[in-house]
Specification:
Strand content: under 5%
Helix content: over 70%
Oligomer: single chain
Distance between the termini: 19 Å
Number of strands: 0
Number of helices: 4
Structural class: mainly alpha
Largest sheet: none
Shape: globular
């Protein structure tokens, strides 16, 4: 699961919608139920994006893009 978090975080940092969707799809295909995916992948990564922004390691645009992408993945 850590690998999935790393890939999803990298996709958000890179503003790569295809990679973000792919990471979520791979998690679901691997048998993660949506609640687990939300609680153990999407939420922790979103918190990490906030921390990265707070430390100045990503821009506010990247953080906002990541938030919107995660919102779309939750709706999925």
């Amino acid at each position: 699961m850590t690998d999935l978090r790393v890939r999803y975080l990298a996709a958000l940092i890179d503003c790569d919608q295809v990679a973000a969707s792919s990471a979520v799809g791979q998690g679901l295909s691997a048998g993660l139920d949506p609640a687990t995916l939300l609680l153990e992948i999407l939420s922790p990564v979103q918190l990490e994006m906030g921390e990265l922004w707070h430390r100045g390691e990503v821009t506010i645009a990247q953080e906002h893009w990541g938030t919107e992408t995660t919102r779309r993945q939750v709706e999925r």
